Amino acid sequence: MLSLLFVLVIDVGLPLALYYSIRTVLADVYALLISGIPPFLFVIIKFIYKRRVDALGCLVVVAYVVSAAISIATGDARATLLRDSGITATIALLFGLSLLPIRTPWFHVRPLTFLVGQQMYQEAPPFTWTDANGVYHEMDIMEWMWDVIGRPVRLFHRLLSGGWSFFLFAEFAIRVSMILATDLPVDRIYLYGTIITIVVVIFMTSCTIIGAIGLQRYVGRWVKENDYTDRLPEQTQTEDPSSIA
Question: Which of 28, 64, 132, 144 could form a disulfide with 139 if both were Cys (CB 3.0 to 4.6 A apart)?
């Protein structure tokens, strides 16, 4: 919950506060550009701190730089608003494409939420357990979730990625409609778009938390039923050959 609040402050709260503070002394186009600085800086700082390329973060940086150049050249505030819509549509498309059932001998596509989870647990220790035959197993925790826990995990991530794709596309459509098909002033479009973003993020995050709690209970039952580490004498445990690097 704290991470959600932090993201909302950086991506929503600060930009909104900056925009409404600056628009009284600067043109809308410059107020919008300055309001986009906090998320832009957050992506850069996260990259420097973690020393890892974030594809979505790179998308935010590129979109910001390109839209800044276009907006300054044209002086059109609505072009700046389209930047956010373009990022939203691209992320929605990535979520949708990650659901395609593509599998090859070299790789297979997995839901984007699962890939995000892999990044989060990249440095986590492997999951270990001993089966009923006394064979010791060791796997990457996310691979264990996907391959061993199986269907509930896959369904969870597919539904979650599908939900993000649907609602982000809906947000994109509403934003673009307000920009291109209405005479709403820029400040109103920006405010309404921000409200929509908050609603989508809170709703999908709530769904994620509820689903994760149910999944955690299922995983707990699986471990209780299938992990014999504490129920077998230590000398009877043997290592699974497939776990040996």
Answer: 144
Question: Tell me: the pLDDT tens digits for 83-102?
Answer: 778 778 888 888 999 999 88
* Beta-carbon contacts of residue 141 (< 8 Å; ≥ 6 apart): 121, 124, 125, 126, 127
List, as own/partner pairs, every contact residues 82-86 make where C-beta atoms lie below 8 angstroms and the sequence separation is at least 24, other chains included. Answer: 82/176, 82/179, 83/36, 84/175, 84/193, 85/172, 85/175, 85/176, 85/179
The letter for the amino acid at 101 is P
Which pLDDT does position 99 carry in this prediction? 94
Cβ-based neighbour number of residue 133 at 10 Å: 11
Residues 6+ apart with CB under 8 A from 157: 110, 111, 113, 114, 117
In a domain, 211, yes or no: yes
Structure tokens belonging to residue 176: 């673009």
Structurally, the chain folds into a number of domains equal to 1
Strands (E), 82-162: 127-130, 135-139
> 116 is in which domain, residue-wise?
52-226
Say whether pTM exceeds 0.85. no
Q: Is residue 165 part of a domain?
A: yes
